[in-house]
Design a protein that fits this description.
Blueprint (H helix, E strand, L loop, with lengths): L2 E11 L4 E5 L3 E5 L8 E7 L7 E2 L4 E6 L2 H19 L1 H15 L4 H22 L3 E6 L2 H18 L7 E6 L6 H11 L2 E3 L4 E5 L8 H10 L1 E6 L6 H6 L2 E4 L11 H10 L7 H10 L9 H14 L9 H8 L2 H24 L2 E5 L2 E7 L1 H4 L8 H16 L2 E7 L2 E6 L1 H7 L1 H11 L3 E6 L3 E6 L4 H21 L1
Parallel strand pairs: 3-5, 7-8, 7-10, 10-11, 11-12, 14-15
Antiparallel strand pairs: 1-2, 1-4, 1-9, 2-3, 4-6, 13-14, 15-16, 16-18, 17-18
Helix pairs in contact: 1-3, 2-3, 3-8, 4-8, 4-9, 4-10, 4-11, 8-9, 9-10, 10-12, 16-17
This protein binds manganese (II) ion.
Length: 473
């Protein structure tokens, strides 16, 4: 049945000549003439859109619309879609569930804020504007990424937005590389709604500040996090910065949980497993004692923290998570490798004892020696610390490799050690240290070169200072 489409250009991709046209709903069109944002165009089509895109022979430009008219139309479509998706029903169902699990004032407040974020997400999505979703590469971050992925899958049933990009973030800051990458992508488009960047489970740090400030000025930034960051000015300047600390809660409300709440407005697909895996991964007090969540958490931590799986895309991970048999198989594989590598680590530890507290050091080359796929060193030191402290009580674990020294400290002794101040003072007295960062229980030092001499000197000084702090107590 031939029919005609008349609408306004709401997003233009100048690289491949693909456009989103907004009539009473959004549609994609590939054009052989150049169109501009807000052009009113019409074309005839005789077939259904293939892969979500029309390719008419002739497109007629009839005139120009204005921005506000189009924005209003997109907004009312987004609201109608929210009704169709059952936003308010979904909200009540999820809120009732959450309030049993987490009895804090923060939860209903966060729901209200996340509903606004979800609506903003819908506006961007249905306008066809580019969306980049960056999630941290650990069990919590990827659980959040997967929850949003399941929401996007639901939205793609209504309209295929071809401009959604997924990035697994391998740093804790929104660093310059990521910022430049995102700007290069966004610059390929003109869109009625600002391009949208979504950040999950990272970036609440000073190293992110210039990039974050600029992004928030130029684009739409939805940022879901649970890392403490005491920069009040930043908190106040961000419209869609949902950090559990801002709502009077703390890191126990994980980024994966926040992303799950966000997604629950849009999709009624079950995201319980992801939510629980996120809580287990980040040792939240709200984590349920569930075998399947523990398995999912191990698998997600493993595939995001092991080099062999670093090329796995979010779609592949999503398929894996939804395949029980494959998940269990992957869990056994992960446990196997982790146990072996932890065993190797334990038998290669050097132990310095101070006041009954173990300070353990490990040369990570001992783990890499067998040439197999190994877990990333930062992740490894956390696992090793978990095992050591479970066996021997409060402990300090230091893993060093190449240019890095990674330190983990049990919570109950972290305050008296004051790791961040200690690392900063070491940085000031050793010219070979390039940088240091982290928090009271997990931090690292980066050397300027991989030379062993300077690294060992810093390591000795670090052990001496930690011993002193423990003795003083
Ligand atoms: Mn997290």
């Amino acid at each position: 049945m031939p029919f005609s489409v008349r609408g306004i250009v709401s997003c233009a991709n100048h690289v491949n000549g693909e456009y989103t046209i907004f009539s009473d709903r959004p549609v994609n069109v590939k054009s052989n003439i150049v169109l501009e944002l807000y052009d009113i165009i019409s074309f005839n089509v005789s077939t259904v859109a293939e892969l979500g895109i029309y390719t008419p022979d002739i497109i007629t430009i009839e005139g120009k619309s204005n921005k506000q008219e189009l924005i209003d139309r997109i907004s009312s479509y987004a609201h109608a879609s929210a009704d169709l998706l059952g936003f308010s029903k979904n909200k009540n169902v999820m809120l009732a569930k959450m309030q049993v699990m987490i009895k804090t004032e923060a939860i209903p407040k966060m729901f209200d804020a996340l509903e606004i974020c979800a609506m903003e997400f819908l506006k961007s999505f249905f306008s066809g504007s580019p969306i980049i979703i960056r999630f941290h590469n650990d069990g919590d971050g990827v659980s959040g990424g997967l929850a949003v992925y399941s929401a996007v899958m639901r939205l793609q049933e209504i309209f295929v937005n071809k401009n959604v990009f997924w990035e697994m973030q391998r740093t804790i800051a929104y660093d310059l590389d990521s910022y430049i990458n995102d700007n290069l992508i966004f610059r390929n488009y003109d869109s009625a709604e600002n391009p949208l960047l979504m950040i999950i489970d990272f970036a609440s740090s000073d190293a992110s500040l210039p990039q974050i400030s600029d992004t928030a000025k130029k684009y739409k930034l939805i940022w879901l996090d649970h890392h403490i960051y005491e920069n009040k000015a930043l908190f106040d300047s961000m419209h869609y910065y949902i950090n559990s600390w801002n709502f009077g809660s703390d890191s126990n409300i994980t980024a994966g949980l926040i992303a799950s709440i966000f997604s629950s407005f849009i999709t009624d697909a079950s995201i319980d497993l992801l939510m629980n895996a996120s809580l287990v991964s980040d040792h939240s007090i709200y984590a349920l004692d569930s075998a399947s969540a523990a398995e999912a958490s191990t698998v997600l931590d493993f595939i995001t923290g092991t080099r062999a799986y670093s090329s796995m895309g979010i779609g592949e991970i999503y398929k894996l998570v939804n395949d029980n048999a494959k998940m269990h198989e992957m869990y056994l594989h992960a446990e196997n490798i982790l146990n072996e590598q932890i065993e190797t680590g334990l038998s290669n530890l050097k132990i310095h004892s101070s006041n009954g507290i173990r300070i353990c050091t490990l040369d990570f080359d001992k783990i890499k020696e067998d040439g197999r796929d190994y877990i990333l060193p930062g992740r490894y030191s956390s696992k090793l610390q978990d095992v050591i402290s479970a066996k021997y009580g409060d402990a300090v674990t230091i893993v060093y490799y190449n240019r890095f020294i990674s330190v983990r400290i049990s919570k109950s002794i972290s305050e008296r050690i004051g790791l961040i101040n200690m690392l900063n003072s070491i940085k000031n007295s050793f010219s070979d240290v390039e940088s240091c960062g982290g928090h009271t229980e997990a931090a690292s030092i980066k050397m300027k070169t991989p030379d062993e001499g300077p690294l060992m000197a810093v390591l000795r000084e670090l052990i001496k200072q930690i011993q002193n702090k423990i003795m003083q107590a």
